[in-house]
Amino acid sequence: MVPLAIARQTVREAMRRRVMWIFLIIGVFLIALGPVFGFLNPRESTVVLKSLGLAAILLAGLFITIVTCIYLIPVEIERRTIYTVLSKPVQRYEFVLGKFLGGFTTVFINVAAMGAVFVAMMWFQTHKSSEVTLIFQGVLMTFFQLLLLAALTVFFSTFATPVVNFFLSFGIFLVGNLPSVTDSLTTSRLAVTRIAGLAIYYLLPHFGNFNMQNKIIHPESEITNTNMFMIQNVEYALIYSAVLLTLGIVIFDRREV
Amino acid sequence: MAPKIYPEDARRRSMVLLPIAAVLLLLSAVVQWQLDPVRKKIQPSGTAYMSGLNNEFLLLPLLGFREAAAGLLWVRADEFFHSGDYDAILPLVRLITWLDPHSDNVYTTGAWHLSYNFTDSSERSDRRYIPPALKLLDEGIDNNPNIPDIKFEKGWELYDKIKNFHESISAYQRAVATPITPLSDDPHYGAPLRVWHALAHAYEKAGRIPEAIGWWQQCLDRSNKTIAANKQDDFAQHEMHEAEIRNLKETEQRYRDRYKKTGHSSVNPTPYPAILAPPKGSAVPAPWVCSFHPRVEIVRPKVFKVSGRLTVADGARVDVQIADEDYKPHDVAGTLNAFNVDPTQTICVDALSVRKTRFEREIDMSRDPKMYSFTRPYYRVVLSYNTRTTSPFLQDRFGWNGEGITDVKEHVWLDPDRAKLGTRLTDAEGTGGFGPVWDGSDVKFTALGQPPRLIRVVYRVSRDDILNGRTLTDKDIVSN
């Protein structure tokens, strides 16, 4: 399997990069900072612990994803190693898929490491399996959010330079995290704004979908069917990632390298 | 420029892949449409919260971590509270509840802070903050219908701060009716036992005695079940249980002492209901004549000296309210979201202790011009003695609704608000009540009939008089 071989190599390369370890260490450090808020009353300290922990995983994961994925294809072109690869019986789509698989496996390893630290700390702090389950759900959703981001970054890396890719991916991630704002555009009185709002709302990736923190931090604010909500989110991440990768393959197919 | 020529396989591939991408994009929009209802439920819409955030807190909500930002802001609010910077807490409470509408603790603590911690230089509450506090609690209840704590806090606010026992009952009833969720403290009840106790106390304060007794009985039944199911000895549970037994017995005994001719304790050694016991030196049953003689002087600009006589035992308190003539108490409808209070509104509430039938206090409102602006042309000074809020040992003579009190100067006032009716009692016939009666035998009786009888005098005074000084006379008294 060509894409898997490329993915394996990509993970090896990515894990050798020091900057990623720095983000990972920062993430773990931020998670470990949570119990400092133990001076608050027990309920508040758990709220802060949970929200800070999930925020730390997302923040570190966000930078790890972007820093890993923006270089995946441009570096190969810059170093001209892509010629060696493509001169072998490797199709361009296999190359893109392999790079994406490698990128998101790297993200998975990092998120899993931070998630394990966080789950262990929650267990140590609360000794409640229900809390651990909720945290697991939160980490899982964060992973799929980052999977979507990885697909977006790989898509941009098929035609944009790393610097442009960084700002594009980060900008769309921010906009995609403000569904309440883009949603309010769809109810604007101006027809132009309303149409633009609808286009933005349904065409841009919805990173905000995966934010289940409120449900996790305040379990009493119930979602009618949490499992269905999570499954739909996973579906969304997979479908939208497939869209981005398909478009990425089409663009990379036509690109002169 | 010559057109680019792409490899044939790339062209063929794109002919297949582009329609697939379009279909998938459409499919993702459909999934998003399915996700929207839940997404909108857990992430409130709007952008108002963004404008009030400092740079240091802006990044987290931008990344979707509104709750993390809210948690950190709450830590900051705690720091402000301990440093005494109370004003700085209000915008933080507003931001936090916008960022995280399920933060129940912020609603309850924020409302308590608004109602209790803003005071004048004599430690009298700034009552202009009560409507925003109630509105904050209402918002919290709407956002968190499954949490009894916010409803309980509203009930307590109405009971303790506002002393509107009827509305307090409604709030506690809503708390009791909270649905059972997997996170309820008690798996069989939506609200903890303390909410049930609070409701029973509110019924008693509202003069709805059969319901108070009935509710204490229900508390007792619930406790008995819980204690029987609990194998471990729970000290707090037993304390609550003891309180229920004591309160149930006490309320029933008080009913007999106050309203019945038989079954008395040492509190009422006479053969009459206490509310009709003969006064000292008389053999004829009659209500207690309290002889309310108030005197209000404006001794300096914005300084009121309130004094007088009220012939009741020590422990009674005369309530004083000085407010704009058009003051509407606790008008939540006109309240802004941002906790802004009307700087032109003047409202001061105080309570004066009666010692050896006399009361006196100088109420200096000149030292707090921001709180007491006196910008309106006319004001009302209301002096009252409320038998529903007085001490139980005084209620032992006057009854829960003031049936056993009267006044030589006809200052007795029956509150016309039908919402405040208590239970009409058989042995209190002829004391001003109306509606169906209760003979004490059926605790399930819920109809109401007895309005509270208050001793109450209302003066109307002009702004000029408040600024120039004058002694108010009977001519300044207006109808209730």
Would you kindly provide a written description of the structure presented here, covering whatever features stand out?
The complex is a heterodimer of chains A (257) and B (480). With 257 residues, chain A is mainly alpha-helical. Chain A has one domain (2-254). Chain A is built from 12 helices and no strands. Chain A has helices at residues 2-15, 18-33, 42-70, 74-78, 81-86, 92-126, 129-157, 162-176, 179-185, 191-203, 213-217, 226-254. In chain A, helix 1 crosses helix 6 (92-126), helix 2 (18-33) packs parallel to helix 6 and helix 3 packs parallel to helix 7. Chain A is globular, with a radius of gyration of 20 Å. The N and C termini of chain B lie far apart (94 Å). Chain B has helices at residues 8-42, 48-51, 55-62, 66-82, 86-99, 104-116, 130-143, 148-162, 165-176, 193-205, 209-229, 235-259, 392-398, 463-468, and strands at residues 288-289, 293-300, 303-309, 317-324, 347-353, 358-364, 378-386, 405-406, 412-414, 424-425, 437-438, 453-462, 470-471, 477-478. In chain B, strands 4, 5, 7, 9, 12 and 14 form a 6-stranded antiparallel sheet that branches. A 4-stranded antiparallel sheet of chain B has the order 6-3-2-13. Chain B has a two-stranded parallel sheet with strand order 1-8. Chain B has 2 domains: 48-259, Serine Threonine Protein Phosphatase 5, Tetratricopeptide repeat (Alpha Horseshoe), CATH 1.25.40.10; 290-415 and 452-478. Chain B has 480 residues and is an alpha+beta fold. In chain B, helix 6 packs parallel to helix 8 and helix 8 packs parallel to helix 10 (193-205). In chain B, 42% of the residues are buried. The interface between A and B is large, with 60 and 55 residues.
Lay out the secondary structure:
The complex is a heterodimer of chains A (257) and B (480).
Chain A: H1 2-15, H2 18-33, H3 42-70, H4 74-78, H5 81-86, H6 92-126, H7 129-157, H8 162-176, H9 179-185, H10 191-203, H11 213-217, H12 226-254
Helix pairs in contact in A: 1-6, 2-3, 2-6, 3-6, 3-7, 6-7, 6-12, 7-8, 7-12, 9-10
Chain B: H1 8-42, H2 48-51, H3 55-62, H4 66-82, H5 86-99, H6 104-116, H7 130-143, H8 148-162, H9 165-176, H10 193-205, H11 209-229, H12 235-259, E1 288-289, E2 293-300, E3 303-309, E4 317-324, E5 347-353, E6 358-364, E7 378-386, H13 392-398, E8 405-406, E9 412-414, E10 424-425, E11 437-438, E12 453-462, H14 463-468, E13 470-471, E14 477-478
Parallel strand pairs in B: 1-8, 10-11
Antiparallel strand pairs in B: 2-3, 2-13, 3-6, 4-5, 4-7, 7-12, 9-12, 12-14
